[in-house]
Amino acid sequence: MISLRRFVLAAVAVAGAVNAQCDKSVEIKSDGDASALSSCNTIRGDVTIGEGVTSLSFPSLQTIEGDLSIKGAVGLTSVDCPMLRQIEGDFVMQGLTVLATLSMPELTKVGSISWTTLPALGQLTFTKGVTEASSVLITDTNLGSLAGINLVTAKTFNINNNKYLSTVNVALGNVSEALSVEFNGKSLNCSFPQLVWATNITIREAGDISFPKLTSVNNSIAFIQNNFETVSFPELEKVGQSFAFNSNTKLTKVTANDLVSVGGTFQFANNTKFQTLDGFRSLKTVGGSVDLSGTFKNATLPELDDVRGGFNLQTTEEFDCAEFDKKKSGGVIKGDEYTCKGKLSEAKSSEGGASTSGGSGSGSGQKNAATGRAGISTFALIAVVAATLIL
Ligand SMILES: *[C@@H]1O[C@H](CO)[C@@H](O)[C@H](O)[C@H]1NC(C)=O
Ligand SMILES: *[C@@H]1O[C@H](CO)[C@@H](O)[C@H](O)[C@H]1NC(C)=O
Ligand SMILES: *[C@@H]1O[C@H](CO)[C@@H](O)[C@H](O)[C@H]1NC(C)=O
Ligand SMILES: *[C@@H]1O[C@H](CO)[C@@H](O)[C@H](O)[C@H]1NC(C)=O
Ligand SMILES: *[C@@H]1O[C@H](CO)[C@@H](O)[C@H](O)[C@H]1NC(C)=O
Ligand SMILES: *[C@@H]1O[C@H](CO)[C@@H](O)[C@H](O)[C@H]1NC(C)=O
């Protein structure tokens, strides 16, 4: 019969051996390698999963003090971490062709999320939900929703090219760098019910959006090629740089009656059904230029009293320019450029791009600040896709 003392010593020895395995970065090359770590509660380093792993399970792991990185494991079908609460570093997954199950029911804190090309991943099993991550990039997945990503604050939040994504509803209070939601499902309903401020916001190809508490955009905000008809920003007061609505072909109404200042360009272009601009009853200051082109029948900016740049309004419809002619002659519009013209066969934005009533409304290739950023992210995407193919 084994004595208690011998049993305790043996247990300590086993724990010691296991701890040594858990105390450093690990590379898991085969399914068997993972079982050697099955008793670790904490791994004090990075966990790198190799291409040959087909299923991954860490039954007792609670904390990874470094990164969790899974790249190119094309046979990996499931990742199961029932106790994992925290990944202190980056959680990277890339090119996991058949990964269908990602179960981390206890996970709440992650340094950052970067998930690229996970074509079989349709949902997350994140029961508690991730509430802390400094940046999130989710691109080219089959996710239908982001249920399980419950962040309240982030530096960057970039969700693009997830063609099955139909809902994004995240309780972010602020985004200190960029918030981008682009090229997902065409009817994506994108809600940020708690968002108060963000540095940049770019929303492209969404079906509906909601920003009920958005008060301030420190840099630029752009809505491009979306499919919604109306949008309102009931709390928005200030945009630090440009404010742009381009190529939203169903758009009929935008309301931001508390918006007082736009630091850069105030632009509407290629919104082929947008005829009445009357939802900006408090707009006083535009630090750049006012650039409105399209099918306007009526436009009014009743409080506008300081435009530091020029003014361009071109429309294919009959238009009464009296209000803006008066602002030009009264010195409200300081820039040299001034155009206000109706009944044009082609209405152009001040960069010269056409914005006619019959236009296709493609938003690519513009040079203006707001859409330029979106152009850059498209380029970055192509680079990511190319890199994935090469790897
Ligand atoms: C950012 O949002 C979070 C969540 O709403 C809030 O707790 C925090 O105070 C905000 N930070 C700033 C600087 O606004
Ligand atoms: C915000 O967007 C502008 C271009 O519109 C870009 O110059 C700037 O670097 C962006 N800032 C952040 C923090 O992403
Ligand atoms: C989008 O979501 C918001 C908030 O959940 C909801 O109020 C709105 O009706 C939804 N829009 C559509 C088109 O389903
Ligand atoms: C953005 O503006 C908000 C409100 O004015 C402010 O609280 C926040 O600190 C600003 N963020 C940055 C990154 O400057
Ligand atoms: C648009 O302007 C015309 C006159 O140019 C005016 O008769 C009409 O009531 C206006 N419509 C709206 C919705 O303001
Ligand atoms: C409007 O659409 C035209 C034609 O597709 C394009 O050349 C132009 O750059 C667009 N302008 C803006 C500001 O989006």
From TrEMBL:
Gene3D superfamilies, per database record: Receptor L-domain (3.80.20.20)
InterPro entries in UniProt: CWI-Assembly_Regulator, Rcpt_L-dom_sf
Record flagged with keyword Glycoprotein: yes
Secretion signal, residue range per the UniProt entry: 1-20
GO annotation, biological process: fungal-type cell wall organization
Record flagged with keyword Hydrolase: no
Subcellular compartments: Secreted, Cell wall
Keywords: Cell wall, Glycoprotein, Secreted, Signal
Domain of life: Eukaryota
Biased composition (Gly residues): 355-364
Main location: secreted
Region feature (Disordered): 347-368
Gene Ontology cellular-component terms listed: cell surface; fungal-type cell wall; plasma membrane
Stored PANTHER family: RECEPTOR PROTEIN-TYROSINE KINASE, SPORULATION-SPECIFIC PROTEIN-RELATED
The protein's name: GPI-anchored cell wall organization protein Ecm33
